[in-house]
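Reopening this one. Same input as before:
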Amino acid sequence: MSDELVLIPARFLRDDIAYRSVSLTNKSVVIFCGFQTADHMEKPQEGYVELIQWQLLYVLEGQAVYQLHPNGQRITIKAGDVLQIPAGTRYRLMPDENSGWACVRLGLDPTFADQLVEAQIINHDRFVMHRGVQLQLVETFDQITHGLRNSPDDSLPWTALSAQQLILQLTHQPALDDDLLTVCRSYLTQHLDEPISVENLSQLCNIPASQLRPTFYKRTGMELVEYQQRLRVDRAISMLGDYSISLDDIARQLGYDNTGDLGVQFKRITGQSPLQYRQRLF
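Same output, byte for byte:
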């Protein structure tokens, strides 16, 4: 079922966020959970907010642009996406007014988040996953919000446990096919100068390493190594337009041992050598 066909019950499209201090392992930590729409977004100074808590954001309706500071990286998130944001991140979230916007947020005190990192339940990487809008997950957010607001103190650890289980559900499911290609492309683009690490990729995609290659081939029609070579050649083409960058530097930055290895792959894919391509540009 596509996200567009999922009708979110009206009771979930409200602004309702609960904060509560919870005693865990003899320490007091703050947890918050709740629903948010575009009308009640943060009003950040100078366009950005700095996150105090580790946070998980689950988009229910519409789409928005998530932009990081200071590098300005922009990520579009849409209904069904899950965004993890580590504590200390400076960012801004810009909802698309034409598509509407509603999300649920789960925030953890950094102390509690660090405990979950040690238990390998979460990590501090920024990432986006596509889970689709699942009403049972939205119900769980609602139960946690209600528990934080109304539960007696001695019941709060159970609410914290529910939050931990929800995080596991959202961050440890297998990635959907559309998400897998996005994750692989992003990872390979950032590691063009390195051999492919199937282990790292499989962890990012949340699927066993043995399934990554056949799943990727089914989705793209090419092997991971070939896909990386084409990304390298694409990058080489853009670098060849800058005459101040030598062929040796291009080869080195793209992970080739020498210009000969670069030339073999470049000519195989484009039909001409890097030097021929550069000469045509100038």
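So the earlier flakiness isn't reproducible anymore. For the record, Strands lie at 16-24, 27-37, 49-50, 54-69, 74-78, 81-85, 90-95, 101-108, 127-130.
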